[in-house]
């Protein structure tokens, strides 16, 4: 299907849907929607959010009108849940849903029009509405008969004799019927009196035939039928109606036969089902008792599983505490049995003794140095004292 065909299909479906809504909404105060509101087309402005919300409001209202309670969706509801509920109601009405729910989120298109059309139809059925037969306006029949498109009216058997195609300027050679009719009426008015004498023709037959052959293409009159004329559509409707009735008679026999076959088959299936249920009744009872025992066993198993889980958790906690105690005991035992710290202490003591001896030696050296310095200073002081005192000369000694 091309895009143009698809667009016209959506528009036509929208027309039908709006007509049904007009019948359903004629007593309610609701907003007026134009015929192309839910039709999807790139040539028309659209608002998907507004169209989707209006679609959900109309769908909920139509479902309520059809006799099924349905809560009106709000603006901030989940779109997936709202669309799913609408499609569920449509399936409950017997509607066929062979498209994904995401197609309705756009708020326009073929599937939106289809859903609204089916819901409007159910609402009209609930109200007992029925379409009336169309009333055609009475019009006077024209004197000229309408024929099919491109039908040609020719004189006697002219069309059978002509085999060549018409020229391009055929429309220019067509006879103006109105002018010809006016001219004929004028001639009749002017020549209303009868001739006094009998007129005799002096025309040659051969020349007359040549003249007829020459003007024959100009005598062709083409009357084109208007396709918009309602009479053509009425005839087509009657033809289609006759065809439908004839097909219905033939199909009705097959359908009745099919219904009888299905009824017989259903009776056989029902009787067979009753026989099987009767034969397997004791087995069904055994199965029910076994199923009840299985349910009890499952309950006991779940209870036991809960106790085992709790005890397993307690055991894991105790195991962790035990591992910590074992690790501490191992650390203390290794520290008690290991002689490395004692050796380190002995080595440290020996090193301290050596350092003490060295310090004693250094102290002795320092004390000796200080003593020498004191003695030297004392001797210097004594020498200075003797140097300051002047001795008396001994004269008599010499």
From TrEMBL:
One of the GO biological process terms: eye photoreceptor cell development
Signal peptide: 1-24
Record's keyword terms, sorted: Cell projection, Cilium, Signal
Any one Gene Ontology cellular component term annotated for this protein: extracellular region
Location in the cell: Cell projection, Cilium
Predominant location: other
InterPro entries named among the record's database cross-references: Intra-flagellar_transport_57
Family: Belongs to the IFT57 family.
Name of the molecule in the record: Intraflagellar transport protein 57 homolog
Organism: Paramormyrops kingsleyae
């Amino acid at each position: 299907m091309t895009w143009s065909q698809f667009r016209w299909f959506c528009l036509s479906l929208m027309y039908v849907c709006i007509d049904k809504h007009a019948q359903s909404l004629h007593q309610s105060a609701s907003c007026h929607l134009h015929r192309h509101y839910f039709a999807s087309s790139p040539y028309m402005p659209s608002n998907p959010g507004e169209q989707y919300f209006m679609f959900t409001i109309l769908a909920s209202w139509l479902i309520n009108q059809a006799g099924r309670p349905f809560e009106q969706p709000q603006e901030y509801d989940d779109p997936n849940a709202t669309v799913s509920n609408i499609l569920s109601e449509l399936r409950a009405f017997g509607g066929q849903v062979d498209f994904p729910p995401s197609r309705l989120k756009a708020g326009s298109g073929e599937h939106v029009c289809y859903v609204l059309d089916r819901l409007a139809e159910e609402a009209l059925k609930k109200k007992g509405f029925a379409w009336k037969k169309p009333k055609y306006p009475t019009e006077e029949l024209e004197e000229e008969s309408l024929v099919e498109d491109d039908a040609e009216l020719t004189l006697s058997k002219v069309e059978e004799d002509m085999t060549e195609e018409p020229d391009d300027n055929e429309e220019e050679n067509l006879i103006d019927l109105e002018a010809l009719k006016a001219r004929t009426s004028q001639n009749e008015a002017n020549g209303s009196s009868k001739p006094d004498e009998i007129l005799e023709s002096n025309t040659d037959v051969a020349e007359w035939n040549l003249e007829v052959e020459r003007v024959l293409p100009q005598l062709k009159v083409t009357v084109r039928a208007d396709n918009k004329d309602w009479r053509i559509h009425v005839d087509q409707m009657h033809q289609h109606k006759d065809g439908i009735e004839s097909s219905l008679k033939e199909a009705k026999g097959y359908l009745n036969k099919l219904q009888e076959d299905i009824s017989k088959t259903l009776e056989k299936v029902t009787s067979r089902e009753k026989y099987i249920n009767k034969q397997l009744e004791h087995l069904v009872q055994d199965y029910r008792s076994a199923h009840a025992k299985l349910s009890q066993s499952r309950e006991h198993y779940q209870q036991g599983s809960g106790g085992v889980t709790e005890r397993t958790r307690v055991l894991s906690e105790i195991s962790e505490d035990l591992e910590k105690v074992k690790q501490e005991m191992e650390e203390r035992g290794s520290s008690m049995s290991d002689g490395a710290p004692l050796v380190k202490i002995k080595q440290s003591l020996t090193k301290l003794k050596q350092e003490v001896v060295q310090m004693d030696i250094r102290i002795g050296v320092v004390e000796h140095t200080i003593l020498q310095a004191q003695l030297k200073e004392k001797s210097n002081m004594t020498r200075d004292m003797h140097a300051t005192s002047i001795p008396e000369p001994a004269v008599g000694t010499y």
